[in-house]
Design goal:
With 148 residues, the protein is an alpha/beta fold. It has a single domain, classed as Rossmann fold. Strands 3-2-1-4-5 form a five-stranded parallel sheet, with helices on both faces. Strand 2, helix 2 and strand 3 form a beta-alpha-beta unit. The longest helix is centred in the middle third of the chain and has 29 residues. The radius of gyration is 17 Å and the shape is globular. Belongs to the universal stress protein A family. This is Universal stress protein A. InterPro entries: Rossmann-like_a/b/a_fold, UspA.
Length: 148
Amino acid sequence: MAHDFELGTDGPKVLVVGVDGSTTSMRAGAYAAGLARRQRSRLVVVYVSRPGAFVGLAPGAAAVARQADHELAEDLRRQVAEGVAWTGIRAQFHEVHGDPYIEILRVADEVNADGVIVGASMRAGHRFAGSLAIRLVKAGRWPVTVVP
């Protein structure tokens, strides 16, 4: 029996990558951008701000932390815009607030992602308690690539 394959439709159409400014997330972003360029995919870059992380800080310290978080998001947004201009990939930046697992899950579902890319956790306890990457893999909604 002969199989008819569709030409030009293989590969992911939409890739989601989570970035937070860490070394591994920036590697994941670079990997995702290269994959999106080669596959002609749309890239959705997600930065999750964690407002709960500022609870318990002194008011002045919380304000400084929020400002630093906002500046990081703006820097990442600028890097995505520069990458789009330089590589020609189709990319968009989403800054969202909340739990990284829930927000990446939500955005990936909203954009009908064909794959999710994240950096490996660098926290020692995640080997036992479960990292964002492991939780995303367990969700089982799309292939997850974990970049070291």
